[in-house]
Amino acid sequence: MLVTLIPLFDEEMSVRAYSLFAQKANFLLDPSMQGTRQNDGATQIAGLEIIENMGLDTLSADKEVFVEVNNISIFSDISGQCQAPHDRIVLLIDSTVTPEKMYVDRLCVLKGMGYKLAMRKLAVKNFETYRSILALCDYIMLDHKNIDISKAKIYFTKVYPRIRLCAENIENQEVFEKLKADGGYQFYEGEFYRVAVNKGETEVSPLKVNYIELLNMVNASDFELTKAADIIGQDTALVILLLKMVNRMSRNSEITSIRHAAAMLGQRELKKWINTAVANQLYADKPNEITRLSLLRAKFAENMAPLFEMNMQASELFLMGLFSVLDLILNRSMEEALQMVKVSKEISSALVEHKGVFAPVLDFIMQYENANWQEVSRLMLVKDIDMDKVYDAYVQSVKWYRDLFV
């Protein structure tokens, strides 16, 4: 199974929902599934299975989750597949669910059960034909790149005033700002939040400079544990995070000082914790999803190390993922940003030039988080990577991220 979460933002760049995209079978890795067997298990909704196995709060603490259903699985026992609250689940349908009576009746039943509905990939020419289905939908996903979204907004605002509009496929901040200025959209989705905007800033805030210095110190070939502890002691937020971490690890020990807490972690674990905690503080003035993206990439990259036969480089892969959004944080090019955090040549080559030994891992992660399953499948085939191990690596990353903030 393959699974990823894609955020939906509001106008303030706060995440309000997630779309959960999953693929249970991999035709490229298992050609025997093509042909007559391709619809086996079609009534099982992969997204609901994941929610049931992981728990809705692990994926999204208090937000709706959009889950794909098709023209077959829509007739399955949906509530039996997942015990999550119905009002937190948005069933995401497309034009394969046609405006025939059997589909309309089924959607009415699902609405009556408390589920919400969203329509995606609907061509403009079918807007009128799909009136009976659109009248039941809570959301309509409008692809900014494929349709005239401004005209679509006028149409839906007039004909379906209660439906919420979601602008999809937004490629950069400029487009996001324009759509936001136009108004009328509840959610925004796309790569825009991951695209750096160079604001021409020449100075980095003093607080960020201190964090960068701490990162550079612990990522040197060797560092003094006591010196790191003393620097941590100068930042209240880091002290609180450190004490929470140590208390979770050893509930029966009495912490007498910051140095004592650091010593309990040890040099290796302290280094890993500092990279994670400092990055979280470094990104504090950015949308929460940037922090989440950075940390998930870091842990996912580390977890993928054995699958790429890079066990010995797991810690470097962690840093690569962690710093993969550093250009967003410092508002400058990736090359300039990395000059401030003395990373290895291998990490720099992957993040700046997309070359070198770590580049394939970064490319895999980027394709995966975009739910580009065809390319992910190809890469798994080329690298002889087991799909279940990829799934486990991602799920463990999501759980790790959740536990960081418990």
User: Briefly, what CATH class of the largest domain?
Assistant: Alpha Beta
User: Within the largest sheet, what's the order of strands?
Assistant: 1-2-3-4-5-6-7-8
Distance between the termini: 27 Å
Mean pLDDT: 85
Give the CATH H-level superfamily of the largest domain: EAL domain
Structural class: alpha/beta
Q: Report the portion of residues in β strands.
A: 5-15%
Query: Roughly what percent helix?
Result: 40-55%
Radius of gyration: 23 Å
Order of helices and strands: EEHHEHEHEHEHEHEHHHHHHHHHHHH
Net shape: elongated
For this structure, the CATH topology of the largest domain is: TIM Barrel
- DSSP helical segment count: 19
Spans of at least 5 consecutive residues whose pLDDT stays below 50 are 32-40, 200-204
The quaternary structure here is single chain
- Tally of extended strands? 8
- CATH arch. level architecture of the largest domain: Alpha-Beta Barrel
Number of domains: 3
Major sheet: size, sense and barrel closure? 8 strands, mixed
Pfam family, one: HDOD
Protein name: HDOD domain-containing protein
Organism: Parablautia muri
Domain HDOD: 204-389
Q: What's this, in brief?
A:
This is HDOD domain-containing protein. It holds the Pfam family HDOD. With 406 residues, the chain is α/β, with parallel strands linked by helices.
Structural notes for this entry:
The protein has 406 residues and is of the alpha/beta class. The chain has three domains: 2-194, EAL domain (TIM Barrel); 208-282, no CATH class; 283-406, no CATH class. 50% of the residues lie in helices and 12% in strands. It contains 19 helices and eight strands. An eight-stranded mixed beta sheet has the order 1-2-3-4-5-6-7-8. Strand 7 (164-170), helix 7 and strand 8 form a beta-alpha-beta unit. The radius of gyration is 23 Å and the shape is elongated.
